[in-house]
């Protein structure tokens, strides 16, 4: 992934010794914000002399939510939630609308006070600290640029609160303008900028103070699709380069998967699963997570046996399937579902030759052509509807499989996940 | 928008404008009349303006009016802005509804009643009537106009601006001074100009609350006209209209400027 990111923003030449010297960090900012050099334990995979940090399960986390609860009148927006965010990681809070993502982020920024629980920042309880004394900065969804100040004035705003010397502020503003590719726009007012440029100003303003944690609440929601994708890569590049901990809120699963090192999937004020994008996608821990992230087919059945070779699941039609599994959500005899992603199926017009793979047979009822993919909707013999996607590797439309064709769907044991109720 | 004006629309527009501005136009024209007779045109002249320059009583009245307008508009702006802030910011505090109704009451209250009640108050506390009492009376009237103007701006104010400021290390009071106030400044200025022009042309409240030595310009004109219309009065009124027009144009310019900024934020 590291390589594919390079080149979106040109990497500046970096002095060999100055790993942490992304900015000339003055003593004052160090006192307020902590020393950047020590903070930035980087995850820059593109740099060989700095091996990727071993995935230590729990170093002292940068942010720790400890059984935090926040209620509004009759809704509990965040419910006894515990979560660790590590230093230097790009962390995403993902969940449907109203699940409490923004509330969680706003508690970290200090705009909401938890009703119960503690929030630790670098080991220190920050609940009693007002927002203007917290070494975290936020990029707002509406950008919240000060309309009466210029771009440079907006970026300098936070630095002026620290009473830095004027020359120092000017250097840093120039640096942030360069970082956000806003050179030459420093004298403009926000209303003279395009949406993408405003977004950059908001980002530059939030980064200018070198926060320990940068909070982003749906930062790209107002951009069109293409610009949003470009900006996602820029954000990743920036985060790589600065080593700052980023916490992003989004309800767009693709965005979370693209940018984040780890994702917390939230639902109704709870964290339902935390993991890397591939863990969340390939090993969802519940039906809800499997269904929320991407498409999934669920084959309902009963767990027949569970052992080191995997799990055997029997569906209602009596078919047996083998699935690789490290842990089991139910005891043998319990009700489970086998989750198979559409792209994990092999679609063929003949029965699979290999007897060890799992097979299903049915009839094609619908074909959706998406350009890169074709989606087959297959009605199984027992009536269940299953989706399978196939990459279109050939350009010609001489379709091998057509409507009403009898097909076999096969999947390997490691392609399926066993989920409890 | 791009439709051309039909004959009917043109006529109704002309009639409407004539109804509003013909009397004023006549007044302006006659202020340049050479004749002493108000209804007879005797050729163009600026002699009444020259004569005005020597009329010390009128000048004094104009200065008094200006002083009262500046003082009362300033006071009304401060009080009205505070009231607007309280109404929009404190959320649903107890007694919010009666409070906002009370703020707006002077807008619809007949000025005679406001004037009379103020007069009674001043008599009761034995305050000598003059510059101060008129200023207080005008403040009472105009602060609700300021409150209305400022409150409507605060209603569309994006509160995440204040959060952003605090997030960047700015304490609450400083946030108010460096972010909130500058952003709503156009509304405050517009409110001030409105209060200023309202105070400048008030007759009713002033006649209830004024005393010897504090005759305002409208009162002076009013009492002069009762003895017959003099051409100097036309000249005074023309200047008066010019001042008010400038203030109103300024106010609308400032408001428009503010809307442009607001849209961008
Ligand atoms: N200030 C508030 N007053 C009352 N209820 C609130 C307030 N803020 C949030 N809520 C409620 O708390 C719940 C969580 O809101 P929150 O804004 O955190 O959701 P979200 O996950 O950010 O959703 P979205 O993706 O739509 O932004 C919602 O039910 C919301 O209505
Ligand atoms: Mg939200």
TrEMBL record, chain B:
Gene3D superfamilies assigned: MetI-like
Q: Which residues form the ABC transmembrane type-1 domain?
A: 62-254
The record, for Pfam families, names: BPD_transp_1
Determine the domain of life of the protein's source: Bacteria
Q: Does the keyword NAD apply?
A: no
- What is the annotated localization of this protein? Cell membrane
Q: Which GO terms describe its cellular component?
A: plasma membrane
Tell me the PROSITE patterns matching this sequence.
ABC_TM1
Its transmembrane ranges are 7-32, 66-87, 99-125, 131-150, 176-198, 233-254
Q: How does it sit in the membrane?
A: Multi-pass membrane protein
Q: Enumerate the CDD domains for this protein.
A: TM_PBP2
Q: Name one GO biological process term.
A: transmembrane transport
Q: Which UniProt keywords apply?
A: Cell membrane, Membrane, Transmembrane, Transmembrane helix, Transport
User: Belongs to which family?
Assistant: Belongs to the binding-protein-dependent transport system permease family. CysTW subfamily.
Q: What is this protein called?
A: ABC transporter permease subunit
Organism annotation: Rhodoplanes serenus
